[in-house]
Design goal:
Layout: E1 9-14, H1 18-29, E2 34-37, H2 69-72, H3 100-113, E3 118-119, E4 124-129, E5 135-139, E6 144-152, E7 158-159, E8 171-172, E9 187-191, H4 195-204, E10 210-215, H5 222-225, H6 237-243, E11 249-261, E12 266-273, E13 280-285, E14 287-290, E15 294-295, E16 309-310, E17 315-316, E18 330-332, H7 350-368, E19 376-378, H8 382-393, H9 398-401, E20 406-412, E21 418-425, H10 426-429, E22 439-446, H11 459-465, E23 479-486, E24 489-495, H12 507-523
Parallel strand pairs: 1-2, 1-6, 2-3, 6-18, 8-14, 9-10, 9-14, 10-11
Antiparallel strand pairs: 4-5, 5-6, 7-15, 11-12, 12-13, 16-17, 19-21, 20-21, 20-22, 22-23, 23-24
Helix pairs in contact: 1-7, 8-12
């Protein structure tokens, strides 16, 4: 472990998982002083335990028919961003759904490859404000770590346990046995309807006598909602056993109480059924397993710097800059960033937050180190702007993965070259110095507003939308959207036509309508004289 620093660090990062490593590499490359505190003996401690059944649901598609590293990142959901093109997770596994141990190996090698400043076996136990306005973090050894800014990259570490009488007697997903033989001929109740619950149910199908999966909300399938945290197909075999009458069932409703019955060596569970006039029944089980997810642990913070919590107190409330809304200088990285796009985009997963973390590093540079957001000068003619947009949407992995959240930014002023900024959080762009006193365009990839209400397997819907310029505004599937703003006010919108192969480069279908949009919107700008 490194000795205590004499001067406050520019940045202290709590957590040596994927987000902490990603930010550490970026801070180090930028020349900032930083340190990562990791509670475990190596990077990626979370993935040494989770997921419990060791199959990741983050895809790892090695063969994509291209050697373009940017395009390949669209199908590589586990690699971190780095200047070393060999430092890719695809070199660690060929499995589409890889084993979690392979991710643990990759993260350890990433930390070593870049010689990141990580204090292992160092658990943050108390966080308070320092006399200089910065932060002081005390670890379990009593050592204090001082920093001007603090970034929480811990992930969600506390069980998100429902308030149900008797639930403390049930078994938690984090510790329950994963050996199916331990459940032979037993009646099992699983609380929760997400991937951890259905992953657990699938594991028990061959041995348990009866499995009930219960929760107050209906299951949402990722292939319908396009939110990768909803139930994935790889975990939905249990649904077959329910629909085909194999003694298993999904229960919609609320668990009212869980009573451990010492005489029967099991549980009596009172359940209120939805869509059945709230009928209450008492059901008997041998085992009850709680698979209801996790929440952020804010107990480390002293009252003067405790972040405000939202979404049933599961997440810290964040500004568009990924900063606490009530604690200046306290930032968040990794899965904690998903508060900004909760159940809408990919901020809770490596393939999404690796780009959000890179955006955070640029925000920190811009705010605290007087380093402007990188940009390329661009001829402000409509054709040149259309060329730049078409090139980016057909190759970018960041806009592809963080759909609707990160966007490219084109800032224009009459008589001057345009500035093209890549991968700016759209909400941040509207209030940042990047757009002060200027008109600007955002470039995003987005699903249609009602995409989750459309049958994704209905070919008639997709057929009418494909390459249709007139219907592009109503496209349900992923497609580019370009918007013009002034001071955050929306002035114009253009949807590029949907395409089955996600190739938005047809001269007449994609480029020409976009160029006409730029002609129209640029002509509406106030002249330099009127400014």
């Amino acid at each position: 472990m490194n000795s205590a620093q004499s001067e406050p660090l520019d940045c202290l990062v709590i957590g040596g998982g994927p987000a902490g490593l990603q930010l550490g590499q970026l801070l180090q490359a930028a020349g900032h002083t930083y340190r990562i505190l990791e509670s475990g003996p190596a990077a990626g401690t979370f993935f040494r335990t989770f997921p419990r059944h060791r199959k990741l649901i983050s895809i790892n598609k090695v063969h994509n028919g291209t050697d373009d590293p940017e395009l390949n990142l669209r199908m590589d959901w586990n690699s971190l961003l780095s200047p070393d093109q060999q430092m890719l997770f695809t070199r660690y596994s060929k499995r589409y759904f890889p084993h979690a141990d392979d991710l643990v190996r990759y993260l350890a090698d990433f930390a070593e490859a870049f010689k990141l400043d990580i204090a292992y076996d160092t658990r943050a136990e108390r966080i308070r404000r320092g006399a200089d306005g910065g932060f002081v973090v005390t670890d379990q050894h009593g050592q204090e770590h001082h920093a001007r800014r603090l970034v929480m990259a811990t992930g969600l570490t506390r069980p998100n346990t429902p308030d149900i009488p008797g639930i403390e007697t049930a078994e938690d997903y984090s510790v329950v046995s994963v050996d199916p033989e331990d459940f032979t001929d037993q009646r099992v109740l699983i609380l929760g309807k997400g991937n951890s619950a259905l992953e657990t149910a699938d594991n028990l199908v061959e041995t348990a006598a009866v499995i009930h999966v219960a929760g107050p909300h209906s299951i949402r399938m990722a292939w319908n909602s396009h939110y990768v945290g909803h139930l994935r197909a790889v975990n939905n075999n249990f649904l077959d056993t329910y629909q085909l009458k194999s003694q298993n069932a999904l229960l919609d409703g609320h668990v009212l109480s869980i009573d451990k019955d010492p005489e029967a060596a099991g549980y009596r569970v009172r359940f209120s059924f939805s869509r059945a006039d709230e009928v209450v029944k008492e059901l008997r089980y041998d085992r009850v397993i709680v698979c209801t997810g996790f929440r952020f642990d804010a107990s480390l913070f002293a009252p003067e710097c405790r972040p405000e919590l939202v979404i049933d107190d599961r997440f810290a409330a964040l500004t568009p800059a990924y900063e606490s809304v009530n604690v200046p200088g306290l930032y968040f990285a990794g899965t904690l960033m998903q508060q900004r796009d909760f159940k809408k985009s990919t901020g809770g997963f490596i393939h999404g937050f690796r780009y959000a973390v890179r955006a955070l590093s640029r925000i920190l540079d811009e705010r605290h180190h007087d380093r402007p957001w990188p940009h390329q000068p661009l001829d402000a003619s409509p054709c040149a702007l259309a060329d730049a947009v078409v090139a980016r949407v057909n190759r970018s992995s960041a806009l592809w993965q963080q759909f609707g959240v990160l966007g490219d930014l084109i800032v224009t002023a009459p008589g001057e070259p345009a500035r093209y900024h890549e991968e700016v959080p759209v909400a941040y762009a509207h209030q940042s110095r990047l757009t002060e006193g200027a008109e600007y365009f955002t470039v995003t990839l987005e699903y249609g507003p009602d995409h989750d209400k459309v049958d994704p397997f209905d070919i008639t819907v997709r057929r009418t939308a494909q390459n249709s310029v007139d219907d592009a505004f109503d496209a349900a599937y992923l497609h580019p959207v370009i918007r013009r703003f002034r001071a955050g006010e929306l002035l114009g919108t253009h949807h590029m036509a949907e395409n089955l192969e996600n190739e938005w480069d047809h001269p007449e279908v994609h480029h020409a309508p976009l160029a006409r949009f730029f002609v129209h919107e640029l002509d509406l700008r106030p002249s330099a004289a009127r400014r």
